[in-house]
Write a structure and sequence with these properties.
The protein is α/β, with parallel strands linked by helices. Helices cover about 45% and strands about 10% of the residues. A five-stranded parallel β-sheet has the order 3-8-7-4-6. The chain has a two-stranded antiparallel sheet with strand order 1-2. A two-stranded antiparallel ribbon has the order 5-9. The chain is globular and about 75 Å long.
Length: about 300
């Protein structure tokens, strides 16, 4: 069988566009023109080595599957759908070929920096402002009570525009004494609301730093720290590594450690522990709620795992 190196064809005026075989399956070849040769078995003679799609140049494909031809088709026949999918695929290939890769390279660069440099904040933009120490939670950045005191004294005002201290203890603990200026966020829903209110903070050039703590910064504070970071990542998943709050710290030792060193920076200047004998009922109430929140999160996680 003779082999043609390249196929060129133009569908006839009377050819039905919906007849895909008449368009993409040419008849026999003679010289420089195509013709139909009917054999006894009513089959056409073809001189084709490989599928037609491999021989068509890009311009021929664009001409054959042009938007103008598609716009003339008012129906949704299988042939029309195939043509539409082909055009879409060609356009995607063209865009992918011509599109710059600098954005992907930037993301790879940030991921590499975050995985190799512990001093880079979570969006990879710069180093941490405050000096950190080795705390109980190796995955979280911890600061000492002394650094917390320096922040409150304004020692870092030239480098930080705004600081929010988030106290994750229960309300009766917070009311019994807290760091000046701190806010009380002890539930995950409160953390999510806080994050939603500040969702546009990334657009600002100001540096907003968060400092989490609870009584000892061993459980509640770290848990809320991680939850906010997780929600922040989810909120900015289409713009990685962007974050509304890329710079977050944990006060090592919690309120107890800070109070016994810098009591004058607390309001009121008292310390009420979680296990205070006068608040046994309050403790059961908030612990019960915490268990229900955790159970709800586990059920949601199970549903998500089963769904995906």
């Amino acid at each position: 069988m003779e082999i043609s190196k390249m196929l060129r064809f133009t569908p006839g005026k009377n050819v039905d566009v919906n007849d895909i075989d008449a368009i993409v399956t040419p008849p026999g070849y003679r010289g420089d023109s195509w013709f139909s040769t009917e054999t006894p078995s009513s089959n056409f003679i073809f001189r084709v080595r490989k599928p037609l799609g491999r021989f068509l140049s890009f311009d021929v494909k664009r001409s054959l599957f042009s938007g103008k031809r598609l716009s003339e088709q008012a129906d949704d026949s299988p042939v029309t759908k195939r043509l539409r999918e082909t055009v879409s695929g060609i356009d995607r290939i063209s865009l992918q070929t011509l599109s710059p890769t600098s954005e992907n390279d930037d993301v790879k660069s940030v991921v590499h920096r975050l995985s190799t440099d512990d001093d880079i904040i979570a969006d990879g933009s710069c180093q941490y402002t405050l000096p950190t120490i080795a705390g109980k939670h190796s995955d979280l950045k911890a600061i000492s009570p002394e650094t917390m005191h320096d922040v409150l004294q304004g020692c870092y005002d030239d480098e930080i525009d705004h600081v929010t201290v988030i106290d994750c203890r229960y309300p009766y603990e917070f009311e019994g004494g807290h760091i000046k200026g701190a806010i009380n966020l002890y539930t995950r829903s409160a953390i999510q609301e806080f994050l939603s209110r500040h969702s546009s903070s990334y657009a600002s050039s100001k540096k907003h730093v968060l400092i989490f703590h609870c009584e000892f910064s061993s459980e509640r504070g770290p848990k809320m720290y991680r939850h906010l970071r997780s929600e922040d990542r989810a909120m900015n998943k289409d713009h990685y590594p962007r974050l509304n709050f890329p710079e977050i710290y944990l006060l090592e030792g919690g309120y107890k450690a800070f109070f016994y060193k810098f009591m004058k920076q607390c309001l009121p200047q008292t310390y009420k522990p979680m296990l205070h004998k006068d608040h046994a009922t309050d403790l059961r109430h908030f612990r019960g709620k915490s268990k229900s929140w955790t159970a709800g999160e586990r059920r949601q996680l199970m549903r998500t795992t089963l769904r995906f």
